[in-house]
Amino acid sequence: xGTEILSFDVEKIREQFPVLNQRVNGYPLxxxxxxxxxxxxxxxxxxxxxxxxTINSNVHRGVHHLSQLATDAYEKAREKVQLHINxxxxxxxxxxxxxxxxxxxxxxxFRDLIKEGDEIIISALEHHSNIVPWQMLCEKIRAxxxxxxxxxxxxxxxxxxxxxxxxxxxxxAFNHISxxxxxxxxxxxxxxxxxxxxxAVLIDGAQAIPHMAVDVQxxxxxxxxxxxxxxxxxxxxxxxxxxEKWLEKLPPYQGGGEMIKTVSFKKTxxxxxxxxxxxxxxxxxxxxxxxxxxxxLQEIGLENIAAYEQELLEYGTQRLMEFDFMRIxxxxxxxxxxxxFLMGDLHPYDVGSIVDxxxxxxxxxxxxxxxxxxxxxxxxxxxxxxxxxxxxxxTDRMIEALKKAKMMLS
Length: 410
Ligand code: C6P
Fold this sequence. Notes:
This protein has 15 helices and 17 strands. Helices cover about 40% and strands about 15% of the residues.
């Protein structure tokens, strides 16, 4: 591991992210809001422009040259994603608008697969995207939504999960990594338990995919959802991985062009996978360029990224603990590079606004995870979320800015 980190040249990496090389309010930008969205490397930015300058055309529709090129590039990107997460088949990769859309696709399809009295389990650590679609589904079908609680460290209580699982459980949905706390959930073990109870499992991988190697076959996940924009790719495109057998069982999500085999007023028949779930003209350039982001991540290596980000996490935690009345919310043993914190009784929004004036981008608030905040009995936190292009020097700058904020607000 040591040699891998030595070969990780953060300054060289930073050169590839033009947005980082700017001043905000007169100070060099420190971007610590990577859990909200990641910055884009030059390869990604250039590929978007290149697409429009060379092959812009609709996909899967034309016999003409440009359409063939665009279709090939789009399908190549699908294959890159397949290999990246080690899916068994290319047609198990569905292009969506993002994580939220991917989860809604599955929740909407499960309307046909569950009945009144069935149960769905989610966790109390979820982003609203992995709560509300299941609530809507359960309300509609009169199914029951059960919630795995977390402990003071922000870890899911496995004994409680065991108790919730039963022969009534049809689906379990939880995140691989919590966006608000950074907790890495023991996904493989939790999936095995759900399968033993006969339930399918959807993993919200939005926060895991930029930070760790994900192998959907090893996890044995039935569905795995993520967004391109959090993994250095363009906004507006995401992925739903689904095991072939589950995608075959789900009905189409939307109706329209591309998702059909034949249409007549008597009867419409649907296309096979993956097109059955891809109605209408997709976000072509974003899909293609997601493939470029995958190449970029693979070049750096997710093992290198994970090891370097752990160093940032440890350093950031240690430096924040220098403050009196510092409260780090979420101290799971297995944690990704996210630190949620509170400084005494200072309001996160006030602190966040002051450090922004000093060029430091943090997120403040409930992070679209209100039940987590309720669990800790707090309205929100400040959140620093690191990526592999961040540095310890930037953390030092954040600490100095927080000291100033504290002085001004105390
Ligand atoms: N979390 C954050 O600042 P979309 O918006 O569909 O790309 O991703 C939604 C989503 C789903 N699950 C998790 C675990 C997430 O973290 C997010 C997005 C951002 O934490 C924006 S709220």
